[in-house]
């Protein structure tokens, strides 16, 4: 039937013709003002609105809604094509550009996915040999920073907005003013950077203004290694760079090289490669870790020793004394002996046995010293490495040119002396994070003119005369160096959203360069550093994203005499011994870093890998200290989970609040008890307690900078309880596996004796055979025919071309949480806020379960020296999924290729599926987290609705945004699967070549994984990586006895302890617990005894 | 008691039952007919800012679909041409036609032309053009005889069951790859010939159209 052409009303909008919400319809000024708000600082209650009032408003709104049937009109929409088609762009297809993520002295090579000119997802650059596509959680979350509605949006002078031209005039006038005085009176305070362009401009600046001060300050300082190398080699450009590729024995001295040290992604890759054994015949590396905090590196260690950070020099001295020091021994022993003498006998023995093992692997061992430790510790580390023959093998001294740099203390002295008239603060946030004894907030007031270049309006901007808006790294040209020195290009993905300028543009204008735009500057650096390859070489550089430049390795030797000289003036500090004599260790926070990511919701809600705390930091103390303070047990998290159900309200931990005092400065925060810390070390994560930040970051934790005067650790602190309580938001209350075979672990020697041990753990080792008579069927047949075995149900055949599966290797997973953020970014997962996390409603599709095990049978005491097991859990895509049988509306069903599909539009929110899921991986949208402000969730329709436009831009257009009342879960990145299949089909044309090649699809978690622990692929292809891993003898199904037949399988963890060590356990503590739990009269001789209960963990 | 309920009320229950039956049946029939895509969407024919005549450009001038929708076989979405595509010819011919003013303006200012969207699937449906046109599904199957339309109108209901009809019986629509953009083409062997060859194409090309949720919903 043909109808008359339909003519739409005039296009210009005088008001909304159809509306998404009642508030939208009313278009009240309040609503319009609030539409932009999404996040609030604190949780809110329903109490604000009484029921009567609620109905009154609802009735009124419905009355308005009825007028004119505005909602009945067909939604009219437009297609807006480009005026001129941009090159390379195909509407609907993602485009990838290479760039880099700069953080302090390292730049991570990236590929960024853009959709019609807007970046949506950060991926690692697979082509780089060192990083191989790995990323960190902080790099993954940078997308959200770009689209932060709270970011500074204008250049300001005081509170008045100024234009880009005004900024240029300001910088030009500075240039003119100080050119005359040779730079006398001008100072720059910058963060450290690896950018060659910034280095060039820094040198140009110091040349143009010879009397100017260029100071650099990082709250997380990594300069001590360089100071030490300069001292013992006499060359002050040298820095040690580590390489774990050939290291088979590694000693980490207070070094979290798998997570927080510079180069962590590269180290993770190298470390994992040394541990990724495919059969019991292969050997793997061994990691020793001595540390004060419990880090992820400690969790991966085969032997771990708790020791206060101040004792690390003594510890290294003890190690050095155990190895052959050669002729220099005579000079060194007299200085080393008193240092080592400070250690107790047990620690000394530990050091001796460890040193013995290192010494028997000369040239392939490594002593890794933490970047925050003193120059003495680094110098000792270098010496030990040299004597072990590791120089140029596992550690190299490389030449890193950083120009002439002053410290923040030098700058403070100049300011006090009144010799600084103009201070340019390039990035950073010194008013918030400078050492407490400098009192920088007051100091900066003495400077005549403070020009601040920053991304946020923060504490420093408040004190500045000018705030110059800094562009995000995804909006600006730049460059940087990887850990190894390769130069990484930093390309903009989008024009600056708010007219920001980059650091190098500000510097270029300050030194009066003719072409001050970022592109010209980066191009000029590239041409001068890499020969005149011209445009073509530059384009090749942008295309690959990096050039393998590398730092130059020096032939310098470590001088033992210089070291002896250095150590002569050093007295080893005493170890902390009681609650009145504590040591405080300041820690770069695992998520918000030094405070710069405080307003990033993804990172705020990403659990700390070890404490599992979100949204706040805490005073982290050891169980021993908790006992001394008499707060043990009743309030600790371990007891919350076991003994004291009354203390679990809304699934949150009620923590005691305490005040910690050092040098007359004090700070107050909630206490979190964490096993595995040095007994009298208190760990304070930095970065929280910001006074001026956006809506996400305000009222979050306490600022440990308030008491941090000098280094990364301070002695003589005391702790006192205030009597108050605070509700921390924690994502894992359950601390232990309690003897169940969830994470399966063994020691390497046991594995060699019994390669099939993994099948003898867990209930399925003697439950009815899951595949029945078909147990010997090849995997490829099993997954398509799903044999019935002992099951009551008929299993459908899976007919698809591919059968998707995943393998997760627990032996290399370091638990870094990079996958959590990658998944959040890829799949449009909302954040829910502190209050909802306290109620256990976080939405992460993949989580990292962290278990402590002590080896004891009942786990009633908090262990002091536990082992940690980490396990990533996402939807297992069970072949016989329990969730599917209980869905009343068939919203979750299987597809042909073995995916457990979730059709959001069918879901009516009964939550039966989540109740029936043994892995607890389904997530329910209790509220419209995407559309509502997090502090107004309980106001329902009365709260304003809508996602800020800026946040909308961060969403992945290939994934549906879910609404309230809908269940969601991991889909194996079905969007990536479908895109790969479609691309293959388009390529196939009229041929039958529709099978996607192995490795084409990298799901988000797999892509971001720095250790390649996650492998995804087609199980139907017997040659695919995932098929091979599934056949591996270490592979097991989690809760396999439930006959769920998960498509995600795990590879059991193998520890590699040294039998000579004093803390040697002949089996991992979790396995010991598992065995201890077994009923006394185990009848099954051929199996290991089983646990009495499994499942239902979270 | 008879004073309370007069005699005519005796027939009332039956009348109510009959009325409710008729009312509900009519309502259901009405909804089925009037509130489904077959009625609501088919025939939708909005006025475009520029009255582009497909039948003229295709039949008189011989343009291929892909002259303008040039990314249809490379992307999930079939792009609406940018103004510069129109200007390839119209910078030389009909350069001052008032009908083309929006195009010239867009080309000059960079502001996009706001074309009225005719075919639209919901946001939670991920349809891919390249997966269909590269495998032998012609434009005509979903968009109708655009080559004969002076004003583009919505030809098919594009409901989920309509999608599934085809996914369950792909042999009815598969054609040789070189005939995909030939909207005029029909199998010379008629319906029987089409089905016979269709089965052959399904076999040859290993066509397995997804029938489960993940095929279109992500």
Q: Could you name the key traits of this structure?
A:
heterodimer; A: 1098 residues; alpha/beta; N-terminal domain of TfIIb; Dimethylsulfoxide Reductase, domain 2; 5 domains; seven-stranded mixed beta sheet; 36 helices; 27% helix; disordered C terminus; B: 218 residues; mainly alpha; 10 helices
Helix content class of chain B:
40-55%
Radius of gyration of chain B: 25 Å
Indicate the overall shape of chain A: globular
Instruction: Fill in the CATH topology of the largest domain in chain A.
Output: Alpha-Beta Plaits
Describe the main β-sheet of chain B briefly.
none
N- to C-terminal separation of chain B?
A: 66 Å
What are the segments of chain B in which pLDDT stays under 50 over at least 5 consecutive residues? none
Work out the number of β strands of chain B.
1
Q: Estimate the global geometry of chain B from the Cα principal axes.
A: extended
CA-CA gap between termini of chain A: 59 Å
What class would the helix/strand composition of chain B place it in? mainly alpha
CATH architecture annotation of the largest domain in chain A: 2-Layer Sandwich
- Quaternary assembly: heterodimer
Please count the helical segments of chain A.
36
Largest interface in this structure: A-B, 58 and 57 residues
- CATH class of the largest domain in chain A, please? Alpha Beta
Summing up helix and strand content along with how strands pair, one would put the structural category of chain A as alpha/beta
How many strands, what sense, and barrel or not for the largest sheet of chain A? 7 strands, mixed
How does this structure look, described?
With 1098 residues, chain A is α/β, with parallel strands linked by helices. Chain A has 5 domains: 95-146, ADC-like domains (N-terminal domain of TfIIb, Single Sheet); 155-217 and 403-550, 3-Layer(aba) Sandwich (Rossmann fold); 224-399, Dimethylsulfoxide Reductase, domain 2; 582-730, Barwin-like endoglucanases (Beta Barrel), CATH 2.40.40; 745-1076, Alpha-Beta Plaits, CATH 3.30.70.20. Chain A is 27% helix and 18% strand. Chain A has 36 helices and 40 strands. Chain A has a 7-stranded mixed sheet with strand order 6-5-17-16-15-7-8. In chain A, strands 22, 23, 24, 25, 26, 27 and 28 form a 7-stranded mixed sheet that branches. In chain A, a hairpin with a 2-residue loop joins strand 2 and strand 3. Chain A starts with 21 loop residues before the first helix and ends in a 22-residue tail after the last helix. By secondary structure, chain B is mainly alpha-helical. Chain B has a domain at 7-35. Helix content of chain B is 41%, strand content 1%. Chain B contains 10 helices and 1 strand. Chain B has helices at residues 12-34, 37-40, 54-60, 65-68, 83-90, 101-109, 129-133, 140-143, 160-168, 190-205; one strand at residues 115-116. The radius of gyration of chain B is 25 Å and the shape is extended. The N and C termini of chain B lie far apart (66 Å). The chains are: A alpha/beta (1098), B mainly alpha (218). At the A-B interface, strand 1 and helix 33 of A face helix 5, helix 6, strand 1 and helix 10 of B.
């Amino acid at each position: 039937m043909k109808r008359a052409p339909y003519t739409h009303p005039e296009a210009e909008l005088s008001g909304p013709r159809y509306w998404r919400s009642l508030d939208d319809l009313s278009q009240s000024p309040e609503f319009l003002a609030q539409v932009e708000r999404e996040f609030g600082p604190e949780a809110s209650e329903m109490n604000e609105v009484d029921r009567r009032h609620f109905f009154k408003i609802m009735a009124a709104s419905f009355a308005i809604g009825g007028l004119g049937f505005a909602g009945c009109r067909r939604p009219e929409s437009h297609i807006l094509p480009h005026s001129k088609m941009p090159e390379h762009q195909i509407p609907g297809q993602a485009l990838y550009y290479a760039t880099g993520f700069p953080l302090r002295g390292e730049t991570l090579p990236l590929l960024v996915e853009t959709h019609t000119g807007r970046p949506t997802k950060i991926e690692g650059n697979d082509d780089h040999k060192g990083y191989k596509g790995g990323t960190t959680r902080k790099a993954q979350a940078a997308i959200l920073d770009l689209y932060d509605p709270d970011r500074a949006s204008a250049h300001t002078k005081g509170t008045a907005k100024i234009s880009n031209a005004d900024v240029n005039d300001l910088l030009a006038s500075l240039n003119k003013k100080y050119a005359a005085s040779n730079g006398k009176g001008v100072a720059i305070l910058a963060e450290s950077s690896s950018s060659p362009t910034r280095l060039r401009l820094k040198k140009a600046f110091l040349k143009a203004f010879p009397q100017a001060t260029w100071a650099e300050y990082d709250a997380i300082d990594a300069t001590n290694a360089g100071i030490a190398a300069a001292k013992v080699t006499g060359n002050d450009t040298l820095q040690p760079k580590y390489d774990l590729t050939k290291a088979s024995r590694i000693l980490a001295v207070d070094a979290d090289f798998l997570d927080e040290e510079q180069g962590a992604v590269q180290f993770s890759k190298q470390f994992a490669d040394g541990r990724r054994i495919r059969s019991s015949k292969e050997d793997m590396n061994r990691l020793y870790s001595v540390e004060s905090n419990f880090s992820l590196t400690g969790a991966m260690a085969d032997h771990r020793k708790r020791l206060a950070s101040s004792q690390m020099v003594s510890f290294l001295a003890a190690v050095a004394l155990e190895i052959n020091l050669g002729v220099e021994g005579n000079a060194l022993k007299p200085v080393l002996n008193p240092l080592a003498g400070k250690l107790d006998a047990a620690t000394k023995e530990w050091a001796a046995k460890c040193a013995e093992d290192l010494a028997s692997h000369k040239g392939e061992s490594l002593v890794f010293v933490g970047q925050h430790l003193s120059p003495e510790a680094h110098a000792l580390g270098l010496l030990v490495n040299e004597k072990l023959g590791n120089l140029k093998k596992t550690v190299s001294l490389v030449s890193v040119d950083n120009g002439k740099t002053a410290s923040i203390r030098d700058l403070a002295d100049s300011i006090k002396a009144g010799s600084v008239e103009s201070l340019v603060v390039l990035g950073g946030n010194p008013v918030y994070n400078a050492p407490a004894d400098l009192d920088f907030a007051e100091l900066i007031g003495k400077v005549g003119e403070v020009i601040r270049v920053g991304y946020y309006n923060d504490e420093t901007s408040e004190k500045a005369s000018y705030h110059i808006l800094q562009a995000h790294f995804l909006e600006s040209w730049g460059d940087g160096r990887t850990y190894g020195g390769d130069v990484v290009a930093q390309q903009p993905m989008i024009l600056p959203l708010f007219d920001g300028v980059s650091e190098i543009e500000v510097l270029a204008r300050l030194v009066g360069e003719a072409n001050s735009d970022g592109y010209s500057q980066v191009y000029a650096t590239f041409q001068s550093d890499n020969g005149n390859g011209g445009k073509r070489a530059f384009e090749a550089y942008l295309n690959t994203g990096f050039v393998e430049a590398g730092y130059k390795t020096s032939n310098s030797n470590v001088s033992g005499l210089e070291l002896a000289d250095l150590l002569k003036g050093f007295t080893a500090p005493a170890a902390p011994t009681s609650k009145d004599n504590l040591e405080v260790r300041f820690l770069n926070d695992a998520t918000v870093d030094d405070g710069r990511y405080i307003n990033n919701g993804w990172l705020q809600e990403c659990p700390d890998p070890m404490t599992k705390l979100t949204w706040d930091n805490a005073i982290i103390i050891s169980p021993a200290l908790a006992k001394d303070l008499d707060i043990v047990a009743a309030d600790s998290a371990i007891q919350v989970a076991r003994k004291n159900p009354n203390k679990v309200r809304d699934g949150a931990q009620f923590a005691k609040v305490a005040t910690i005092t050092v040098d007359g400065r004090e700070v107050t925060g909630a206490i979190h008890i964490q096993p595995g810390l040095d007994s009298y070390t208190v760990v304070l994560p930095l970065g929280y307690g910001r006074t001026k930040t956006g809506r996400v970051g305000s009222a979050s934790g306490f600022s440990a900078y308030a008491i941090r005067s000098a280094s990364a650790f301070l002695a003589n602190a005391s702790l006192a309880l205030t009597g108050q309580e605070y509700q921390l938001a924690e994502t894992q209350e359950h601390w232990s596996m309690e003897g169940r075979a969830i994470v399966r672990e063994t020691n390497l020697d046991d594995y060699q004796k019994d390669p099939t041990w993994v099948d003898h753990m867990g209930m399925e080792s003697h439950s009815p055979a899951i595949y029945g008579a078909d147990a010997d069927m090849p995997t490829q047949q099993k997954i398509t025919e799903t044999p019935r075995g002992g099951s009551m149900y008929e299993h459908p055949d899976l007919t698809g071309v591919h059968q998707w599966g995943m393998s997760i290797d627990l032996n290399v997973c370091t638990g870094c949480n990079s996958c959590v953020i990658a998944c959040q970014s890829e799949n449009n997962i909302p954040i829910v806020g502190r209050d909802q996390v306290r109620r256990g409603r976080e939405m992460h599709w993949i989580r990292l379960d962290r278990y402590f095990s002590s080896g004891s049978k009942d786990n009633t005491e908090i262990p002091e020296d536990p082992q940690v097991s980490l396990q990533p859990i996402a939807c297992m895509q069970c072949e016989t999924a329990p969730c599917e049988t209980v869905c009343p509306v068939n919203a979750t069903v299987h597809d042909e290729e073995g995916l457990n599909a979730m059709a959001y539009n069918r879901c009516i929110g009964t939550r039966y599926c989540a109740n029936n899921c043994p892995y607890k991986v389904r997530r329910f949208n209790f509220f419209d987290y995407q559309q509502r402000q997090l502090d107004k969730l309980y106001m329902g329709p009365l709260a304003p609705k809508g996602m800020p436009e800026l946040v909308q831009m961060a969403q992945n257009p290939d994934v549906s945004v879910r609404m309230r009342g809908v269940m969601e879960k991991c889909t194996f990145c079905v969007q990536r699967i479908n895109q790969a299949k479609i691309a293959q089909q388009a390529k196939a044309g009229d041929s039958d070549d529709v099978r996607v090649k192995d490795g084409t699809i990298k799901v988000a978690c797999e892509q971001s994984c720095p250790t390649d622990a996650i492998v995804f692929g087609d199980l139907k292809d017997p040659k695919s990586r995932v098929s091979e891993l599934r056949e591996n003898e270490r592979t097991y199904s989690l809760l396999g006895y439930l006959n769920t037949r998960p498509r995600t399988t795990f590879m059991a963890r193998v520890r590699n302890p040294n039998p000579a060590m004093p803390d040697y356990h002949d089996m991992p503590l979790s396995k010991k617990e598992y065995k201890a739990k077994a009923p006394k009269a185990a009848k099954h001789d051929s199996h290991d005894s089983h646990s009495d209960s499994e499942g239902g963990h979270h | 008691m008879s004073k309370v309920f007069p005699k005519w009320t005796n027939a009332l229950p039956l009348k109510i039952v009959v009325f409710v039956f008729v009312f509900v049946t009519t309502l259901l029939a009405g909804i089925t007919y009037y509130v489904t895509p077959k009625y609501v969407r088919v025939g939708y024919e909005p006025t475009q800012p520029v009255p582009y005549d497909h039948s003229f450009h295709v039949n008189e001038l011989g343009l291929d679909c892909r002259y303008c929708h040039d990314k249809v076989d490379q992307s999930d979405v079939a792009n609406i041409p940018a103004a510069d595509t129109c200007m390839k010819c119209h910078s030389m011919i009909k350069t001052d036609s008032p009908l083309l003013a929006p195009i010239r303006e867009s080309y000059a200012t960079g502001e996009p032309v706001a074309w009225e969207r005719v075919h639209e699937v919901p946001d939670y449906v991920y349809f891919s053009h390249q997966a269909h046109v590269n495998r032998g599904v012609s434009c005509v199957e979903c968009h109708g005889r655009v080559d004969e339309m002076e004003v583009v109108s919505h030809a098919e209901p594009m409901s989920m069951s309509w999608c599934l009809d085809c996914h369950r019986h792909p042999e009815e629509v598969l054609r040789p790859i070189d005939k995909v953009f030939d909207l005029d083409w029909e199998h010379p062997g008629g319906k029987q010939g089409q089905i016979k060859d269709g089965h052959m194409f399904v076999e040859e090309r290993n066509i397995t159209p997804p029938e489960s949720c993940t095929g279109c919903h992500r």
